[in-house]
Write a structure and sequence with these properties.
The structure holds two protein chains of two kinds. By secondary structure, chain A is mainly α. Chain A has six helices and no strands. By secondary structure, chain B is mostly helical. Chain B starts with 14 loop residues before the first helix and ends with a helix. The chains are: A mainly alpha, B mainly alpha.
C-alpha cells in the first residue's frame, strides 16, 4: 500500500486548519462564564469547533487512501504551527523548554512512522 | 514561563490550575487514541467517497460516529483546560495519543514491535514530560 500525494496534501491542510481552530477554542474558552449564553452564543468556540470538524473531514478523506505511518507525522506539524500561533495571538513565550518538548515529540513520531513500514 | 499581561485573553496564572490543565489534557489523550482508532476503522469504508458522502458517512457509520462523539467529549474537556493553561503547552501534549495507539496495536492486535517503535514511544514520552513539566509550573 502506498500513500498518494493527494492524501498527504489533505492531511497537511487539515492539520493547519486544526491548529487555527485551536486558536479560536483558546480565545473562546476565556469568554465562557457561568451564564449559558456565554457558551451558546460564543462565536469563537463555534468557529473553533467548525475548523476542527473541517479538519476532521479532510483527515478522514486523506486517511482513507494511505498509511497512517506516513500520514501521522504530517498531523504532528500542527504542533509547530501552534507554537507560532500562540506567540502571535496570545503572547505566549517560545521557550527552550517548549522547543525541546515539541522537537522531541516530532523526532519520536518520525521514529514511530519509520518503525511502521 | 510568565505569560505577558498585555494580552487580554491571558488570565492570572494559577500554578495549581495549570497543573490541572496539563493533567486533564494528558488524560484526554486516551480518548483521542480510541477515537482515532475508531475513525480509521470507519474511514476504510469511505475510500472513494466524495466530500458529501464522507459527511453522511460520519453520521451513519457506527465506528465513525462513535469516534466523533469521543472527539466531542475531548473537545469539551480541552476547552476547559485551555482556560487555565497555555495553548503552546497543552496542544502538543495531545501527541501522547501516539503512544497509546502504538501500545494498543502491540498488546491488543499483536502488531510487531521493533527498535524504531520503542525509540519513538520513549522519545515522545520524554517530549511530553518536558512540556508537561515545564508548562505545568
Amino acid at each position: 500500500m502506498t500513500t498518494p500525494v493527494s492524501s498527504m496534501v489533505l492531511v497537511l491542510v487539515g492539520s493547519v486548519i486544526g491548529s487555527v481552530g485551536a486558536i479560536f477554542l483558546k480565545s473562546g474558552a476565556h469568554a465562557v462564564n457561568r451564564h449559558w449564553t456565554s457558551i451558546a452564543f460564543n462565536w469563537r468556540l463555534a468557529v473553533g469547533i467548525g475548523a476542527y470538524l473541517a479538519s476532521s473531514v479532510l483527515f478522514v478523506k486523506g486517511m482513507s487512501n494511505g498509511e497512517l505511518s506516513v500520514l501521522f507525522p504530517l498531523v504532528s506539524l500542527s504542533y509547530v504551527c501552534t507554537l507560532a500561533w500562540s506567540r502571535l495571538f496570545f503572547n505566549e513565550a517560545i521557550t527552550k523548554v517548549k522547543l525541546a518538548g515539541v522537537g522531541l515529540i516530532l523526532v519520536g513520531i518520525t521514529f514511530l512512522s519509520l518503525g511502521s513500514h | 514561563m510568565t505569560p505577558a499581561t498585555t494580552a487580554p485573553e491571558v488570565h492570572v496564572p494559577d500554578p495549581a490550575k495549570r497543573k490541572l490543565a496539563v493533567f486533564i489534557v494528558l488524560a484526554c489523550t486516551l480518548l483521542v487514541a480510541i477515537a482515532q482508532y475508531l475513525i480509521k476503522l470507519g474511514a476504510n469504508r469511505l475510500s472513494h467517497a466524495g466530500l458529501l458522502a464522507t459527511t453522511i458517512g460520519i453520521l451513519t457509520i457506527p465506528q465513525l460516529f462513535a469516534g466523533y462523539c469521543l472527539y466531542a467529549v475531548f473537545t469539551a474537556l480541552f476547552v476547559f483546560a485551555l482556560r487555565h493553561g497555555e495553548l503552546s503547552v497543552l496542544y502538543p501534549l495531545i501527541a501522547l495519543s501516539y503512544v497509546w495507539v502504538t501500545i494498543t496495536a502491540v498488546v491488543a492486535f499483536h502488531e510487531a514491535l521493533n527498535p524504531y517503535k520503542i525509540v519513538g514511544v520513549l522519545v515522545i514520552v520524554c517530549g511530553v514530560a518536558v512540556l508537561g513539566w515545564g508548562g505545568g509550573k
